[in-house]
Amino acid sequence: MPTAPRSTPPPRPSLTERRKAETQLEIARTAAALFTERGAAVTAEEIARTSGVALRTFYRYFRTKEDAVVPLLANGVREWLDDLAAPSAGPEALPVREVLERAARRALTPADEPAAEALRWTRGLLRAMPDDPALRAVWHRVHHDSEEALRPVLARLTGADPWAVRLAAAAANTAMRIAVEEWAAGDAAPDGPRGPGALAAPALRALTAGLPELDAPCRAYTGNGRENGEARGR
Q1: For residues 195 and 129, is the Cβ–Cβ distance under 8 A?
Q2: C-alpha to C-alpha distance for 53 and 145, rounded to whole angstroms
Q3: For residue 68, how many other CB atoms are within 10 A of its CB?
Q4: pLDDT beyond 90 at 91
Q5: Count of alpha carbons within 13 Å of 99, Cβ hemisphere only?
């Protein structure tokens, strides 16, 4: 099955950018662990101290203590979008719906212990959210941003009109969100039959059932590695 080429691959982040991202993710892990343990009582000072950074450094990266968990929550979303942005295309290309389901399962099924740990931290954050509206707002903001980023990807994969693309992005993003929330409400293992990856596929099928545009094979990638946010007409 051929892989659709990218005419101009996106530039690799600089060493400084990669180090910054690593520092932010490390702070996010620490913040998630503290929120899981102590809930809304956690302070920015505590997160900074436990992470081994100065409070000034913390506020250079994050506006609030709740914002500190964004890199952790967004990491899986980025992997999902990257996976979708480089699909196979051609006469044997899979239907877009199946590509979405496979990518969702891969994104939410941990491949190693660090990935499983990240999901467990996400579970802890979700359980802390009822007592922390600001933390819940961060969760919904991450998913809103995910939906916005998904739209140009689906526009390329389907060639559908903007309305159908918007509906598909909303449905797919919601399926991912409720799969994680449903799993987090229980005690199932992250990689088991009731894990978020296993729940995401049937949720996607149910929520996208009325979108025939997703039954077509994936279209070839012809972009330059950047999102333009515009759906192509048929």
Answers
A1: no
A2: 28
A3: 27
A4: no
A5: 26
